[in-house]
Amino acid sequence: MTETLQTGQLGAEELRELAERAGRELENASAPEILQWAADTFGKRFCVTSSMEDAVVAHLASRAFPGVDVVFLDTGYHFEETIGTRDAVEAVMDVNVITLTPRQTVAEQDAEYGPKLHDRDPDLCCKLRKVKPLEEGLTSYTAWATGLRRDESPTRANTPVVGWDEKRQKVKISPIARWTQDDVDAYVAEHGVLTNPLLMDGYASVGCKPCTRRVLEGEDARAGRWAGRGKTECGLHD
């Protein structure tokens, strides 16, 4: 599938139609093929977002688009291992890591909202430290790629490989949506892709330190996030 459109000149409705058509046509395409389409279609107006749980999508994207922008949200609450993974990705991969930070430091947020907002109102904390910074950081892009997979949790079971992000009015690409954890592990092993050390220490999904725990046997990969709080997403993918 090849696009020759000047996507930077398309309106939201045209982009939505482009995304929905691509989602249908690329449903059975490989992750490299999906990312090559994204690179060819959007060029510099395309980026990858990464939580630095692993660098699989960043690695895949760097092969389709060397020097691709990889956007990372530094919430101020990350594990040291996560920051270390970001630094390693920046050092060894052909990508341009862009670190976004919230408008307030953790100390400034504590002063305004009280300490440990993540315990009292995790939705607001995520909004301030993740959702708003990403919205501002994606302003110059038309399309963004994520590492979402359908097998991660019931809330992600219908993730399209290419879809329309209504909230941000952007094309949202999930090139490994159809992958399983076994597929991820095989790719990591084959290509020596960097992964967060916490994945080898009982964590199946890595987020902010105060809101992430190790998973128990039989739990899905997202069970360790906001455990016991009835919350499954931070708002980036709602």
UniProtKB/TrEMBL annotation:
<feature type="domain" description="Phosphoadenosine phosphosulphate reductase">
    <location>
        <begin position="51"/>
        <end position="213"/>
    </location>
</feature>
<comment type="function">
    <text>Catalyzes the formation of sulfite from adenosine 5'-phosphosulfate (APS) using thioredoxin as an electron donor.</text>
</comment>
<dbReference type="InterPro" id="IPR004511">
    <property type="entry name" value="PAPS/APS_Rdtase"/>
</dbReference>
<dbReference type="GO" id="GO:0004604">
    <property type="term" value="F:phosphoadenylyl-sulfate reductase (thioredoxin) activity"/>
</dbReference>
<feature type="binding site">
    <location>
        <position position="125"/>
    </location>
    <ligand>
        <name>[4Fe-4S] cluster</name>
    </ligand>
</feature>
<dbReference type="InterPro" id="IPR014729">
    <property type="entry name" value="Rossmann-like_a/b/a_fold"/>
</dbReference>
<keyword id="KW-0963">Cytoplasm</keyword>
<comment type="pathway">
    <text>Sulfur metabolism; hydrogen sulfide biosynthesis; sulfite from sulfate.</text>
</comment>
<protein>
    <recommendedName>
        <fullName>Adenosine 5'-phosphosulfate reductase</fullName>
        <ecNumber>1.8.4.10</ecNumber>
    </recommendedName>
</protein>
<keyword id="KW-0560">Oxidoreductase</keyword>
<feature type="binding site">
    <location>
        <position position="126"/>
    </location>
    <ligand>
        <name>[4Fe-4S] cluster</name>
    </ligand>
</feature>
<dbReference type="InterPro" id="IPR002500">
    <property type="entry name" value="PAPS_reduct_dom"/>
</dbReference>
<keyword id="KW-0479">Metal-binding</keyword>
<comment type="similarity">
    <text>Belongs to the PAPS reductase family. CysH subfamily.</text>
</comment>
<keyword id="KW-0411">Iron-sulfur</keyword>
<feature type="binding site">
    <location>
        <position position="211"/>
    </location>
    <ligand>
        <name>[4Fe-4S] cluster</name>
    </ligand>
</feature>
<feature type="binding site">
    <location>
        <position position="208"/>
    </location>
    <ligand>
        <name>[4Fe-4S] cluster</name>
    </ligand>
</feature>
<dbReference type="Pfam" id="PF01507">
    <property type="entry name" value="PAPS_reduct"/>
</dbReference>
<feature type="active site" description="Nucleophile; cysteine thiosulfonate intermediate">
    <location>
        <position position="234"/>
    </location>
</feature>
<keyword id="KW-0408">Iron</keyword>
